[in-house]
Design brief:
InterPro entries: Di-haem_cyt_TM
Shape: elongated
Transmembrane segments: 7-30, 50-74
Radius of gyration: 20 Å
Helix content: over 70%
Number of helices: 3
Keywords: Membrane, Transmembrane, Transmembrane helix
Distance between the termini: 17 Å
Strand content: under 5%
Largest sheet: none
Length: 82
């Protein structure tokens, strides 16, 4: 049971850390096109729409897989130290 709790806590923490880091990376690499935004200002909708894409889902799935893989090996490394 202890092994499961270590895995679950490790997975949740790693998943959150990877999501924050991917958000920081995406924010730093984003370059807005101000000229195009200025030209489109009259055609903007007053409603907010939320669009989901397949790449977003695949990125989340990749982050979850990476987090689970690392979290799987954390209990064994803790056990080897003791």
């Amino acid at each position: 049971m202890k092994k499961y709790f270590i895995f679950a806590i490790s997975f949740i923490l790693l998943f959150l850390i990877f999501h924050v880091l991917s958000g920081i990376l995406l924010t730093f690499t984003f370059t807005p096109d101000m000229a195009e935004a200025w030209n489109l200002r009259g055609n903007l909708s007053q409603e907010t729409t939320i669009n989901s894409s397949l790449t977003s889902f695949l990125l989340t799935l990749l982050i979850a897989f990476l987090s689970a893989t690392i979290a799987y090996f954390i209990p064994t490394s803790i056990r080897e130290r003791n």
